[in-house]
Design a protein that fits this description.
Oligomer: single chain
Structural class: alpha+beta
Number of domains: 3
Strand content: 25-35%
CATH architecture of the largest domain: 3-Layer(aba) Sandwich
Amino acid sequence: MKIAIITYDNMGEYASNEVNEDIILENLLRELGLDFSVEIWSDPKVNWCDYSLLLIKSPWDYFDRYEEFKNWCHTIKEYGIPTLNAMDTILWNSDKWYLQDIEKKGFPIVPTQFLKKQAPLQLERYFQQFNTDTLVIKPTVSGGAKNTIKIQKSHWQEHEATVQAWLEEEDFMVQPFVEEVAKTGECSYIFFNNKFSHAILKSPKQGEFRVQHFFGGQIHPITPSEKELDYMQQIVDAFAADCLYARVDGVWTDGVFYLMELELIEPYLFLFVSAEAQQNYKKAIEKQVIKLIKT
């Protein structure tokens, strides 16, 4: 068996200033005695049929090359090459319209108005719809806070032309700004093979609303309560039961968890927070590989 770790052509835009998890994954596969190579998903020179398994880790530019990425996914499916996570899951999870599916199952998401490409923009209406003075607008296919903007009700006209121009190119989502993100932060719960591994709190720097590290966000390991874990397990059971990895992102408000993202495609897994987290990942990979060999 030969495994490909799927990464991207790193031009520096989305690279983490934390530990490089591709390297951690390489070390774990070596410890398991597995044969592997690191491959860029968009590299036309790769013969994908050389591989028995593709381990999707960090195709972090997929949203910049979305049509190309989807075509690649469908090609891998046609070849019949197994992937972790599964390609159907990757495709579903690549566009945040999937949040509607989760909401329909009864799990609260941050209130969201989804806008189709080239739809009319009605910023003033959304302030009234969400009863808020601040909106957050972002693409449905995105990452790293790309084209994400926070707009105040008192100055919405200043941003209307910019957002309308963005909307001419792709679908967007409009949400009320969640104060708890700025005050407390965003929680991430990481699961491997449907089993909880570890959790962290991502806190934005003073005056910022984006929690990503390249905007000054800080990472703090946390210990969730049983109530929290029971609820996260329900989400994972419903939508990620067969996944090698899943990251549940959201914010707690008045005792209610509002899902922001269920990351099943290329999440940073915060493996640096503990040796236990890395061992959990290693054991999960080993179990999946053994299952594949037996089939």
